[in-house]
Amino acid sequence: MSTASIDRQTIEAMVRNALRQSASPAPRTRSGNPPGWVNGKPNLRVSISARHVHLTDEHVEILFGPGAKLEPEKDLYQDGFYAAKQTVMVVGPRRRMLPSVRVLGPTRPASQVELAFTDSISLGIDAPVRHSGKIDGTPGCVLVGPVGSVQLHQGVIRAARHVHLNDADAEFYGVQNGDMMQLKIVSHECTTIFDDVLVRQDSAAKLEVHIDTDEGNACHLDAASEVQLLKISSGCACKH
Fold first, then answer.
1. What is the mean pLDDT of residues 83-93?
2. Which of 207, 199, 201, 218 is closest to 160 using CA atoms?
3. Per-residue pLDDT tens for 48-75?
4. How far apart are CA 168 and CA 148, in angstroms?
5. Backbone dihedral region for residue 39 (phi beyond 0: left; psi -120 to 50: alpha; all else: beta)
6. What are residue 113's DSSP bridge partners?
7. Which of 4, 43, 79, 219 could bridge 38 with an S-S bond, Cβ 3.0-4.6 Å?
8. What span, in angstroms and rounded, lies between the C-alpha atoms of 97 and 115?
């Protein structure tokens, strides 16, 4: 397989695996727990990932002016990631638009727009369900900032559900990077089980499932009484 045919996410996974095999144990907090653990156990968080945009350094300067950098406004749960002060307008076919879509940082090698299904309908874009970074063959859009605009020829996706976890979390659940899990949301008369939750393992990650706004509304996440992350094994989901 040539290097050109390997996508960015696969390369990152290979690098992480090589680093894990070369030595270091999972990082620990001052309490002695792995990142995100409470009282010696993983602390599961389920977050709704609202529509947002990832930008390259080049596109930041085109949209916000020469020398512009993303300005952090709010830290996200995963260390090192943040919601920026900057927003952009996302314009679809026939001039349908979302007027103020938050940019997330840090910058990336390729710009990407992540929407929920209802967002894509509103824009008139047939956005496919993809995991982050897998944008080949996806539709594009126009991004408009206060200084300039960018025509994306690809990069608009409906982000597939996934779970971030560290090495200790992965050992606890008996999974590894690239596996699929189930997420069970228990809420009054609205209990829902989501399949196809991709495991994205990183030694510095904190246990967090990302679903989009449509999925969060469908399971009434705000009123959930319990959330369970389930390993899929021989047709049986277990451990939570």
1. 97
2. 199
3. 999 999 999 999 999 999 999 999 999 9
4. 45
5. left
6. 53, 156
7. 43
8. 12
Q: CB-side exposure of 198: number of CA atoms within 13 Å? A: 15
Instruction: Give the type of residue at 176.
Output: Q
Nearest to 163 by CA among 202, 134, 197: 197
Are 13 and 177 in contact, with CB atoms under 8 Å apart?
A: yes
Give CA separation, 131 vs 115, 156, 178, 196, 205, in Å: 12, 11, 11, 11, 17
Strand partners, 233: 236
Which contiguous run of DSSP H or E holds residue 141? strand 141-144
Q: How far apart are CA 123 and CA 94, in angstroms?
A: 9
Structural contact between residues 154 and 174, judged by C-beta atoms closer than 8 angstroms: no
- Report the DSSP pairing between strands 41-42 and 37-38: antiparallel
User: Cα dist. 8→11, 117, 130, 218 in Å?
Assistant: 5, 25, 14, 31
pLDDT band at 1 (very low <50, low <70, confident <90, very high): very low
**How far is C-alpha 130 from the geometric centre of its chain's CA atoms?**
11
Q: Is the pLDDT of residue 3 over 80?
A: no
- Are the C-beta atoms of residues 126 and 157 closer than 8 Å to each other? no
Range list of H helices, the chain? 8-22, 57-64, 117-123, 167-173, 213-218
d(CA 203, CA 168) in angstroms, rounded, equals 8
Confidence of residue 19 (pLDDT cuts 50, 70, 90): very low
